[in-house]
Write a structure and sequence with these properties.
- The protein is of the alpha/beta class and 192 residues long.
- The chain has eight helices and five strands; from the N terminus they run βαβααβααβααβα.
- It has a single domain, classed as P-loop containing nucleotide triphosphate hydrolases (Rossmann fold).
- It is globular and about 50 Å long.
- The structure holds adenosine-5'-diphosphate and thymidine-5'-diphosphate (TYD).
- Adenosine-5'-diphosphate binds next to α1 and α8.
- It comes from Methanobrevibacter woesei.
- InterPro entries: P-loop_NTPase, Thymidylate_kin-like_dom, Thymidylate_kin_CS, Thymidylate_kinase.
- Its EC number is 2.7.4.9.
Length: 192
């Protein structure tokens, strides 16, 4: 099963993925974690470009779109293991939310595997900017407002759950577990 966490910067994806992994493993399930951008040479180049002031320009966004698409192709083989639950921090859905135009992003990602479940951590943009260190040029209210709008549009094409990420960490984790339970055969009555 391929579960993907999506959301704007600082939504709580990394924190929640760790809590979900622990819970799934306590329930006897094998879990593997992935993250995009990856730690490949392509991923490292992406992270460097994200710190450049021109990262949000149309030309650079097209370059980033191609680099993100290439970077995720490097891990596509890991997504076919049906004996594990693969949880990824981001996917090509991030490209649909952050980059554009949408039809081109879909085309260059047409070989990317579609997630079985997308968990969209929906956070207020002002809170996101407060939580982030401002290193990436994307971490500004104007850009992230557009990203948040894009997420709520593109997500409808997938099997998804929207999680209110403005709550405390334990409440968010409980909501995520309740959303995931039926997909992985765990009884949700056990979830506090
Ligand atoms: N529910 C929450 N309430 C308050 N702070 C949170 C919450 N979830 C995460 N944080 C904090 O916000 C920051 C970003 O969290 P992180 O899990 O790294 O988000 P992401 O992976 O989406 O960027 C971290 O400092 C983390 O401790
Ligand atoms: C995977 C992906 C990430 N991104 C952006 C989202 C983040 O701003 C940045 C990833 O940096 P990261 O530090 O991982 O941010 P976060 O903790 O919020 O995930 O790259 C895209 O623009 N397109 C993509 O396809």
């Amino acid at each position: 099963m391929y579960i993907v966490f999506e959301g704007i910067d600082g939504a709580g994806k990394s924190s929640q993925i760790q809590l979900l992994k622990e819970w799934l493993e306590e329930n006897g399930l094998e879990v593997e974690l992935l993250v995009e951008p990856t730690d490949s040479k392509v991923g490292k180049l992406i992270r460097e470009l994200l710190t450049y002031d021109n990262a949000t320009t149309e030309d650079m966004q097209k370059t980033l779109g191609l680099l993100f698409a290439a970077d995720r192709m490097l891990i596509m083989d890991k997504l076919n293991d049906e004996n594990k639950i693969i949880i990824s921090d981001r996917s090509f859905i991030s490209s649909l939310a952050y980059q554009e135009p949408k039809d081109w992003i879909n085309e260059i990602n047409k070989y990317a595997k579609k997630p079985d479940l997308v968990l969209l951590l929906d956070l207020d943009v002002a809170t996101s900017v407060k939580r982030c260190d401002g290193e990436d040029s994307f971490e500004n209210e104007e850009f992230l407002n557009k990203v948040k709008e894009n997420y709520l549009d593109v997500i409808k094409e997938f099997n998804y759950e929207i999680i209110d990420a403005n709550n405390g960490i334990n409440k968010v984790s409980s909501d995520i577990k309740k959303a995931v339970a039926s997909y992985v055969g765990i009884c949700s009555s056990q979830i506090p």
